[in-house]
Specification:
The chain is globular and about 65 Å long. By secondary structure, it is an all-alpha fold. The protein has helices at 18-50, 57-82, 90-107, 113-138, 142-161, 173-178, 188-206, 208-218, 220-225, 230-256, 267-277, 289-308, 313-349, and strands spanning 182-183, 186-187. A two-stranded antiparallel sheet has the order 1-2. It starts with 17 loop residues before the first helix and ends with a helix.
Length: 350
Amino acid sequence: MTTRDVRPPDAPTGTPAPESTARLTHRLFVVRELGILLALVLLIAVTFGVNHRFLSAQNVKDLLLGSTILAILAVGQAIVIITRNVDLSVGSILGLTAFATGVLFVGEPGIPIPLAVLAGVALGAACGAVNGGLIATARVPALVVTLGTLYVFRGLDHTWATGRQINAADMPREFLRMGNATVLGVPVLALFAVAVLVAAGYLLTNYRSGRELYAIGSDPEAARLSGIPVGRRVFFAFVANGALAGLAGVLYAARFGTVDANAGLGIELNVVAAVVVGGVAIFGGSGSVYGAALGAVLLTTIGSALPVLGVSPFWQRAAVGVLILAAIGLDRALAVRMARRLRGGRTRGY
């Protein structure tokens, strides 16, 4: 049985069908993500060749723990960037939620851990709703809004903390154990990240509301004219991102135990870097949460591998910058290639 492209009756011969365009776009996603995976494998192989202890059980566990929080934040940020927006306040949301989790355990020592996790997620979602509401209803650029809320949420955190620090002794042992426990050698926190990644990837690819986020990122005005509720979709993208930042804040508290008002300070730049390196177009409309998570793992591995290779901290930061520029250049090259192939298909039809 052979398959063929299905075109509308009035479509000119040679015009790419929606199915072929979707397949081409999917192949480009796969190319980008395979490139990231290859870079990660090469980096690990070279570092292992220099120092065999790099892949020891403890070091692998540390790598997974180190990339977990960044990967969860990158998944949420990818959802927002796909809609042609950005959220610079995720680090402040993480810090506010981490401190709130510690305060909750101090005030209610017997509170069930799942309820504390849900409280942190709810607080993060509320912060995301503030961002999404301002952006979707007031039509204020996301860069401006989230830059403002970055300082607002961090200011609330500092005001609430008033110089206090919550220590591991103030939190339940079971909660702290969750931050370092493993299941068959895999850290529990990494399982949280995998669950988030699978759920987000499934929703974006199998639900209409998820696919509409790509349409909004590709052309917001065209999406609006086609009947997509752009404002509502963008609002819920920011709520989802805030909720994941809240979850990351709870996991941050579980992993480190000690929390103050500076938790997550500056991490938002690493999150955006992970998403861009992971192949999500900064101008929206393309990419995947899987690539964003791979980008987070790659950046974390770079941070651990380059010192082993004897690279100075300055060049570590430079390497991340080069990766960002290379990812943007690759994204542009792939977009141009796809446009040429689509134009070529139409030209051959005329």
